[in-house]
Each structure stands twice: as structure tokens, then as C-alpha cells.
Amino acid sequence: MFADALARCAATEPALPADRSGDLIDLADRLRAPLTVAVRGRPGVGRRTVARALTCAGVTTVDRGAELVVRVLAEVPKPEDLAALAGPDRPGLLILNKADLTGFRPGGPVAAAARYCVRLAASTGVPAEPMVALAAVAADGLADGPEDPDGGALAALRVLVTAPADLSSPDAFLAGAHPLSARVRAGLLERLDLFGIAHAVVALRADPAAGGAEVCAALRRAGRIEPVIAALARAGATPMYRRVAAATARLRELACGDPDAEDAVAGFLAGDDAVAARAAAAAAVLASAGLTVESGAADPEGPGRPEPGLRAALRWRRYRDGPLDALHRDCAGDLVRAALRPAPAGPTRCGPTR
Ligand SMILES: Nc1nc2c(ncn2[C@@H]2O[C@H](COP(=O)(O)OP(=O)(O)OP(=O)(O)O)[C@@H](O)[C@H]2O)c(=O)[nH]1
Ligand SMILES: [Mg+2]
């Protein structure tokens, strides 16, 4: 929202010198750039597989200078993980990978991992999501098309529907006679693991007409890539808010340093568009911390009460004055400012409206 408001201002504000319009467009472009994510974790937890699954899902992963750190765990947090939680590189999201290995509990291993993630998030203060990165990556591998000389992974999976194999362990799957050669079974095991094979076979059994796309979708669901991406977007609210705050600071510098642009830029910062956009970024941060951020449109307490906007402003100001860190205090301040504005009567425009 802030980038859009900035670009609108650059395009429509007549009082803005041309080179300053260019600065605003550059700032808007930087605000719109994808979030950079670093995937960390102890060796062997599946760090590389998780990073690959995220990259395939469109996430920009980097080794250094990331705006958001994701910490991959397997089973339980180890001392290195606890140290990372307390360090400067504190993760914004924990991924409990290898959820397929959580063991046989009510609802299956992934449901058990999800229940554990609720406890993990409560004890660490960092949101946690279960994942089976191997299955998510296998889906992307299958989506590339069959490459097996025996007719492709998909054809081999169809054989498993009619001629079930022993999926109780990797050794059992590879042992004994089966219409699929041991080499093809080993290939399936390497690409999909037992968990992926089982999910793909269930999908093909439920719908014999299912093709590669349907099997890939089943594997992505099994890998939980979508809930992980959604959690990443929620965790990304904080770095995104920091971007907006940095852009605001840069605009203030521009306003102070260039008398020709001063009125237009200061007007933009004080205008409805910028205030609403900052409030939206702030609301996303507070919502990701579990707070309910209401729009304040309805007044359930009836006439005679302070108008909803004013009540919301008072509520957020009380919240802001509580024992908060600087980030949440700034966010609450943005909501106070936005709540004190009358609801816009029509399309908002750039610059001060009063
Ligand atoms: N069962 C299971 N195994 C997984 C899963 N994700 C990864 N693995 C396996 O875990 C092992 C380690 O995975 P890697 O992706 O190499 O992760 P890493 O060793 O933490 O990361 P690097 O040090 O960068 O290689 C590999 O054998 C993977 O196949 C998963 O979701 N389930
Ligand atoms: Mg490895």
C-alpha cells in the first residue's frame, strides 16, 4: 500500500520536481522487492531441502543480509537452536521439518507435529509450522516430467496402486519380488521417500484418472508448503513494516534537504494515503503477534459513546503506553494516527487534505 501511494504521489503531484519524482519511484520499487529470507539450522535437519522447497514456491532465499531468518528444526530444539533464538539473528519463523518422522500418534505424524508446533511457538515466542520438505520438493521434481527410462515415476506409482508394495520401511520396500524392479523402487524412494510414495499412491487410488498435476498437488499438500508460505507471509509483516519505516525516514530527509520538494513530500507523509498505508503495515505486524486489529467501522455500544475511530485511537494509545518494545510501540502509534482521521469520503489523493 505504501509503495502504491508513493508511486501515485510521484505520478500525480505537480509540485514535485522531476528528479524527486524519480527518487520516489525508486523508493516504491525497493518497497515492492520480494522479501529476502535466509534458511538456517543445524546440519542434517533438511535445511537445503527446505530452502529448495521455498525457492520453488517463489521465495527469494539468500545466504547473507536476509530480512527474515527461518530456522529449520527436526524433532526438538537443540542447544544451538536455543542460542539462535536468543541471538541477534533471531528467527521470525521456526519450521519443524521431517514431520513425517514424528511417529504414529493420533491423527498421524504431521498432525502430531502440528500440535507440537503450537507448544513450541508458545514456549519460544516464535511461530512454528510443521513441514515435510522432502515431499514438497518431490512435487516439484515430478512436475518437471517423467525422466525414468522405465516409463517415469508417475507410471511406476500407478503400478504401486494395483500391486501394493510393503511401505513399512525403506528396506521392506526394496526387498523381495515386485512388478517394479528394485532399481525403479530405489529411484522412487530417493525422489519421494516412503511418505511421498504413500501420499502419491493414495492420490492415484482415490482418482485413477489423476495425472502428474494432481499427484504433485497431493505431494505439496503432504509437504505443507502452502501453510508454510502463509506463515512466512505473516512473519514477513515485521520486515515489511521496517521497510516502510525506513522509506518514511528517507522521505523526511528528502523533505528537509530539498526546499523545492519539501511541501510535496511532507504533504505526502501527512496525507491520508501514507497514514493509512503505514497503519496497514503496522496492523499486519500486530496481527502477526496475535492481536485483533479492528477496522472500528461499527459502533456496537450505540449513541452517546465516543465515535469508533476515537475509541480505537484511545485503545491503541493505552496499548502504546504499556510495556512494549519499540517496534510494537511504533505500530500502535501508527494506528492511533490513522484512527484519528475521519473515514475518507471518496478516493484519497496525494498530499494534505485539510
Ligand atoms: N524424512 C524426511 N527427510 C528429509 C526431509 N527433508 C530433508 N530430509 C532428508 O534429510 C537429509 C538432510 O537434508 P539436507 O537437505 O541435505 O539438509 P541439511 O543437511 O540440513 O543441509 P545442508 O547442510 O545445506 O546440506 C537428507 O537426506 C534429506 O533427504 C523431510 O521432510 N523428511
Ligand atoms: Mg545435507
Automatic annotation (TrEMBL):
Q: Domain of life, per the record? A: Bacteria
User: What is the recorded name of this protein?
Assistant: Uncharacterized protein
Q: Which organism is it from?
A: Mycolicibacterium fallax (Mycobacterium fallax)
The taxonomic lineage of its organism, from the top, reads: Bacteria, Bacillati, Actinomycetota, Actinomycetes, Mycobacteriales
